[in-house]
Specification:
With 104 residues, the protein is of the alpha+beta class. It has a domain of 61 residues. It contains two helices and three strands. It has a three-stranded antiparallel sheet. A hairpin with a 4-residue loop joins strand 1 and strand 2.
C-alpha cells in the first residue's frame, strides 16, 4: 500500500484513500463466492478451515457491473505482471474452491 494520493478519477476530483490499521492487516481467504442481480454484484471472500464443516465470510463487497468489470481487468493485469516476474501460477489438479464455491 502506498501513502501517496490515488491518481485522480476520470471526473477530475482527486481522492485520498485511507485505510485503518485493522483493515490494513488484511484477512486470509481461500474461497470466494460471486452472485449478481441485474444491478449489482456481490463478492464474498471466505475462509474455509481444513476438515471443518463451516466456513466464515471474512469480507463482502457489493458493487456495480461496471466496477466489477474494472476489478476483473485490474486483477487480470496484476496477475499478468506477477507471472511475468515470478513465472506462471500453476493451479494443479485440485479444484480451486470446494464444490459450490463459485456461484454466478
Amino acid at each position: 500500500m502506498s501513502d501517496k494520493p490515488a491518481s485522480p478519477p476520470p471526473h477530475g476530483i482527486p481522492v485520498q484513500i485511507e485505510i485503518d490499521p485493522i483493515t490494513a492487516q488484511g484477512a486470509f481467504v481461500n474461497m470466494a463466492m460471486v452472485n449478481h442481480t441485474d444491478t449489482e454484484f456481490t463478492l464474498d471472500l471466505i475462509y474455509v478451515q481444513p476438515q471443518a464443516p463451516k466456513a466464515t465470510v471474512r469480507a463482502r463487497a457489493i458493487t456495480t457491473p461496471k466496477h466489477m468489470k474494472r476489478l476483473l481487468l485490474a486483477i487480470q493485469e496484476n496477475l499478468a505482471r506477477y507471472e511475468a516476474r515470478f513465472g506462471p501460477v500453476e493451479l494443479g489438479d485440485a479444484p480451486a474452491f470446494p464444490q459450490g464455491g463459485i456461484v454466478n
